[in-house]
Structures are given as structure tokens and as C-alpha cells.
Write a structure and sequence with these properties.
The chain has 518 residues and is α/β, with parallel strands linked by helices. The protein has helices spanning 11-25, 28-34, 38-41, 60-72, 75-83, 116-136, 160-168, 186-194, 213-229, 235-238, 246-252, 278-284, 286-305, 312-326, 344-356, 388-393, 413-432, 436-445, 452-459, 477-497, 509-517; strands spanning 43-46, 49-52, 110-111, 114-115, 149-153, 177-181, 201-206, 239-243, 259-261, 331-336, 374-377, 400-405, 467-472. The structure holds 6-O-phosphono-beta-D-fructofuranose.
């Protein structure tokens, strides 16, 4: 069982409040001036990932106190409960075992007396054989033609993850064209159908519950379209499903052998590592899907075994708590410097905001402190030409995660050097800012001396704005798996310390009920 400690009642919380006065007095530049090794001391490596926390308002003492907070919140025990399948989603009486989906060594984790490892292994095998048949063209459609287009029908956790990964890793994709239908907006559905040939299209209906109105309505529309164009018997060759609700899938008319399993111990927003990721395996090939799982598994091992003061996802979570609960931060920006990661933020919004957007603690009491943040962002360098102004000179402190890759995929170093110069420069500009003296000199140098007094205040940047930089060698399936699971564990650690349940989502139910009545 998870503890139910109110974080504000801990000794560390009180000490952090006192410590805040010292940190608030110090500009980030001063931290760097005082310690020339700062960047090295606050950087960590994991496989091909280098994470630099040095541009955050932290000192050794801050981290020590934050780790003490984690210890008082019994984080170590909570991590063990997560991995061993305890029912830590207490409001739904469920285990939370997305880590088991990317575990490759035999283990004894079980839920309600049932071993999890064999279930996962068999499901992976089923995904593997199926994807190989589709990709090789061995699987034929109703009229004998191989599949050319795959359509994932799902929403939320049954859509955002697969869609984001398929696009992020499109460099590795094969000949299959992948489409995603999620919104109940029929115009979008028909727009997709317009592009497709029913004889060569495979629909994957992904719904953990198989009760979601958007997904079922879209699936029915696609089924009617297919049957109208061909025959009732075509469904067997063109529809598969991923769900925990076998009965409802069968009632819908999908053949039992075409159902891929899902389990209630996997939350929707943590599910793309299961059969829910079948569109990823189809688009990229099973081997790439497995590499993606193995990347996540590498982070999982690091998270479970590493001391908190060197544990990357733990530090990500603790530093975010420092900002949220002590410095009044309410939003965080995530900026991947890779255009193919342009759906990453939408995916992470569900992960963070559906998980930690809670105001009732694990005791059932209303919380008296902030939980969760607004997550936003988009790809760099595009973001620099839109909302970054607010982060540089606005009135709020908005911590930024910069995500970059040393090498480009297509090897165009001319573009990549400029892209990465921007990735570096943004973090540096946020930290350093620009002093009066520097603005003065610049304006004089550029022959603008007569406007100096008028423009000076507008051109000064105070700096002292915080960021964390994530640098991978290259955007690969393995590295993307690592990155996503870092964020999953960040969400978990925050939920534990905030004493909330990160794994239910009752907040979205009310709107659904009302929509039905309306
Ligand atoms: O309404 C929110 C939600 O329940 C998400 O948590 C989930 O990912 C999504 O809907 C889809 O649910 P399902 O996979 O059951 O269709």
C-alpha cells in the first residue's frame, strides 16, 4: 500500500521553504560564476542520453532536501509497489504495470494470482506474427490483395501514443501507409476514408474498454464503408481490435482470432507498449517496436535501481516540484528540436495532465498545495518564432525541457548545425539574459546610439530562466523509448509525493455523461 503522507507536513518541505530564500536571492549566472564545474556536476548520462540540469535554480543543498522529501514520502517503497504489481491505483483497485510490458527477462510479477510475464510474452508474439504477415504481404485482403494502408481507430491513450511514435520514427517506416482516426468529427473520418481503397485497408480498433463513443462511432462508420464497398465477410480480413472487452469486440463483429489482448493493469495513457502499439509495429516493423520497448526498459531499470540523487526521472520530478510548490510555477514547456516529434507534446499533455490533474489526495481530502502543471510546447526552432517571447521576457517563470539530437537522420549537417545552435542558444539566452551594459554596447556598435535611452528597458533580458537539456546521439526507436519512459516516471514520482492517485481519470467522465444526455 502507498503511504498517505501530506507532503507539506514533512520536515523536508519546511526546510525547502527556508532554503528558498537563499536560492531566490541568487541569479543562475552567479551559480555558474561560483562553480566552473557546475554543468558537469549537474549532468548525468544514461546510454546515449546526456541530461544537463545545471540551468535550474538548484544547489547541492536543494537536491539534498528534495531527496529527503522523496524519502519522507517513501518513494523507494512506492517504486517497488509499482514494479511488483501492487494495486496502487486504489480508487479503481488496479495494479499499474506498464513497466511489465517492456520487460524481457522472466520474472514473477503477478496480478490476482496470474503471472504477467507469459501474458505479455504471448501478446508480443501475436503482434510479431501478425505484423510480419501484413508487412510481407502474406496476409491478403478479402479480394486477395495485400494490405497497403493501416488505420488506427482510437482516442486518447489509444491514439496519441501510437500516432506520436509512428510520426516520430517515420524515418524507419516501411511501405505501409498509416492513418489515425480519433475525433468524432465525421468530416475528419470521411476525409481519411476518401484516400483509402477498401480492398487493401486494414482497420485496427483500439479501445481498452470498447465503450468509448468516439471510437465505436468511427469504427461503425468504417465498417459500413467497407461492407458497402465489398461484402459482410470482408470484415474478418480487414478488421482487428485491441481491447480488454472481448465480448463487446465480438458483438461488434470482429473475429475472436483478430483480437489482441489488453489488461486492466495497464492504464490507457501508458498502453502503447502493449498490443495498443500494433500500428507502431506495423509501420516500423516488429524489430523497431521491440527496440522501442527495450529503450523504455533501460530507463525502467535505471529508475528502479539508481540512488535518487543520480536518478534522472526522480530528479526531473523533484526539480519540477521545487518550482511548482515553492516558486509558484504553473506551467512547463517541452521543446523537441526535431520536427518529427511534433506530436510529442500532445502525447505528454495527456500523460501529465490526465494523471496529475487531481485535487483530492490519497486520503480522500482536498489538497492544499498545487499538483500538476499545464504542459505545453512545440518543436524548436518553430517555437522560437511564437510563444518563446513569453518565456524569455514574460512575467511567469516557465521551466523548459529542451530535447535535441547530436546527429540528424538524413545527414544534412548544414541544417542540423543551425538547428542545434538554436537548441543550445535558447537555453543559454534564458539563463544568461542580456544586461544593460551589453545592450548599450550593442546599440552603439550598430550605430543606434541616439535611441539608447528610449529602447534600453525593452531590450534588457533579466535571464535567470530555467531549463533542462536532454541530448541524445540520434532519434532512434530505442532512444525514443527511453525518453518517453523518463516522463512516465516523472509523472509517477510527482503523484507519489503529491499524495494523489495518478492512475484514475474520473474528471473526464462527467463530460461524457452530459454529452449523452444532451
Ligand atoms: O476519456 C478518457 C479516456 O478514458 C482515456 O483515459 C483513454 O485513454 C481514452 O479515454 C480512450 O479509452 P478507451 O481505450 O477505453 O477507448
Amino acid at each position: 500500500m502507498l503511504t498517505t503522507t501530506n507532503p507539506t507536513s514533512t520536515k523536508a518541505w519546511k526546510e525547502l521553504n527556508t532554503h528558498l530564500q537563499t536560492v531566490n536571492k541568487t541569479h543562475l549566472n552567479e551559480f555558474f560564476n561560483k562553480n566552473t564545474n557546475r554543468q558537469e556536476e549537474f549532468s548525468f548520462k544514461l546510454e546515449q542520453l546526456h541530461v544537463d540540469f545545471s540551468k535550474n535554480k538548484i544547489t547541492d543543498e536543494t537536491l539534498g532536501l528534495l531527496v529527503a522529501l522523496a524519502n519522507e514520502s517513501k518513494l523507494k517503497d512506492a517504486i517497488e509497489s509499482l514494479y511488483t504489481g501492487e494495486k496502487i491505483n486504489s480508487t479503481e483497485n488496479r495494479a499499474v504495470l506498464h513497466t511489465a510490458l517492456r520487460e524481457f527477462s522472466e520474472n514473477k510479477t503477478s496480478v490476482d494470482g496470474q503471472s504477467v510475464f507469459p501474458l505479455v510474452k504471448n501478446a508480443r508474439q501475436k503482434v510479431k506474427s501478425f505484423t510480419e504477415e501484413i508487412i510481407s504481404g502474406k496476409w491478403k485482403g478479402f479480394t486477395g490483395k495485400p494490405i497497403t494502408d493501416v488505420v488506427n481507430i482510437g482516442i486518447g491513450g489509444s491514439d496519441l501514443g501510437p500516432q506520436m511514435v509512428v510520426e516520430a520514427l517515420s524515418f524507419y517506416s516501411n511501405h505501409l501507409r498509416t492513418h489515425f482516426i480519433s475525433n468524432i468529427d465525421g468530416d475528419a473520418t470521411h476525409q481519411t476514408l476518401k484516400k483509402l481503397n477498401p480492398e487493401t485497408t486494414l482497420f485496427i480498433v483500439v479501445s481498452k474498454t470498447f465503450t468509448t463513443i468516439e471510437t465505436l462511432t468511427n469504427a461503425k462508420t468504417c465498417k459500413s464503408w467497407l461492407v458497402n464497398e465489398m461484402d459482410d465477410n470482408a470484415v474478418k480480413k480487414h478488421f482487428v481490435a485491441v481491447s480488454t472487452n472481448q465480448k463487446a469486440v465480438e458483438q461488434f463483429g470482429i473475429a475472436t482470432e483478430n483480437i489482441f489482448p489488453m489488461w486492466d493493469w495497464v492504464g490507457g495513457r501508458f498502453s502503447m507498449w502493449s498490443s495498443v502499439g500494433i500500428s507502431i509495429a506495423l509501420a516500423l516493423g516488429y524489430e523497431n517496436f521491440e527496440a522501442f520497448l527495450k529503450g523504455a526498459n533501460t530507463t525502467d531499470k535505471h529508475f528502479r535501481k539508481t540512488a535518487f540523487k543520480e536518478n534522472i526521472p526522480v530528479l526531473m520530478a523533484l526539480i519540477s516540484i521545487w518550482y511548482t510548490n515553492f516558486m509558484g510555477v504553473t506551467s512547463e514547456a517541452i521543446l523537441p528540436y526535431a520536427e518529427s516529434l511534433n506530436k510529442l507534446v500532445a502525447y505528454l499533455q495527456q500523460l501529465f495532465m490526465e494523471s496529475n490533474g487531481k485535487s483530492i489526495d490519497r486520503n480522500g481530502e482536498k489538497v492544499t498545495y498545487a499538483t500538476g502543471n499545464i504542459i505545453f510546447g512545440s518543436t524548436g526552432s518553430n517555437a522560437q518564432h511564437s510563444f518563446m517571447q513569453h518565456i524569455h521576457q514574460g512575467t511567469q517563470l516557465i521551466p523548459v525541457d529542451f530535447i535535441g539530437f547530436k546527429k540528424s537522420l538524413y545527414g544534412d549537417t548544414k541544417h542540423h548545425d543551425i538547428l542545434m545552435a538554436n537548441y543550445k542558444a535558447q537555453a543559454q539566452a534564458l539563463q544568461e539574459g542580456k544586461t544593460k551594459e551589453a545592450v548599450h554596447l550593442d546599440m552603439k556598435f550598430n550605430g543606434n546610439a541616439k535611441n539608447i535611452n528610449q529602447l534600453l528597458p525593452f531590450k534588457v533580458f533579466e535571464g535567470n530562466r530555467v531549463s533542462t537539456s536532454f541530448l541524445f546521439d540520434k532519434l532512434t526507436p530505442f532512444n525514443l523509448g527511453m525518453l518517453i519512459s523518463l516522463y512516465e516516471h516523472k509523472v509517477f514520482v510527482q503523484g507519489i509525493i503529491w499524495n494523489i492517485n495518478s492512475f484514475d481519470q474520473f474528471g473526464v467522465e462527467l463530460g461524457k455523461e452530459m454529452a449523452k444526455k444532451v
